[in-house]
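Per-residue structure
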Amino acid sequence: MHEATHGSELWLVRHGPTEWSRAGRHTSVTDLPLLADGEQDAVAAGKRLAEVDFAQVLTSPRARARRTAELAGFADAEVDEDLVEWAYGDYEGLTTPEIRASVPGWTVWTHPSPGGETAAQVATRLDRVVARARAVDGRTLVFAHGHSLRVLAARWLGLAPSEGRLLRLDTATVSVLGFERETPVVLRWNS
């Protein structure tokens, strides 16, 4: 899929909690601030990252991701538009139970989001992030969002974007993707 530098690793940090993430509301383009405890979680994540050297640090342009990066000690993280959250279109701000009231069994992984992105569109932009990370002999750190990071991990592993459904990802967690010999692997998840 991508030319790999086997010394590359991709470190993922999901932003700290916001009012909507805590309530289970789908949040893509709505630019909500971190909650107070979300700011504390970002600082705590930063302490875990402080001893690690990163060749490049990237962040979603959304305020919640940029603020998490800043509080974690990476204020000069480079904004990468490819890291934005999956665009939910008409489902922005709704919870899964609200969506399922009219579309039984709906999940972002299996059903379209009217006016939003398809799984293939999300995968296309996150494949570019995988390529950026694999072009570096060293660690890439990214600050982004729940669904986009799950798709990013699936693409790192060479899986279909829908396989991100198998990778639960909580707010303010650190995950690490890398290689075992030439095979892309999960080194740590949702930690």
Remarks:
- Residues 9-188 form a domain with the Rossmann fold fold (CATH 3.40.50.1240).
- The chain has six helices and six strands.
- The radius of gyration is 16 Å.
